[in-house]
Amino acid sequence: MKALSKKLKNIILISILIFIAHGLEEYFTGFYDVDIFFNFFIKLFGYTNLNQAIFITFEIVVWLFLIISFFLIKDRKFILFITTIWGLILIFELHHLIKALLKWDYYPGTVTAILLLIIGFFYWKELIINLKAT
Question: CB under 8 Å to 36, separation ≥6 — which residues?
Fold first, then answer.
């Protein structure tokens, strides 16, 4: 892949902002106390009483990764790898919607996860167009 289109770069920038909002929504709605995946890893490493602190640290690391990776996609060597990781992260956010539907109630992070799924659709559509253009 030669370079990303301006449209795809804009989608990535918008998704970074939504990811930050998503992390804040998860934090303020207690995601770190109810999510099975998160709690599995907390218990795996034996930090059962530090959920909130570990979650905040994790979110900050993810936000930094997203921001740094945005600048790395300017280097052609990293474009395909990073864009694939971005796309997989956007797909993974589907678990919020699945949990909400299974509970038939709000699940922490669902509102912004829906936005991420919408942006993910446009992301994958534009990424495929970019891949075909090369």
Answer: none
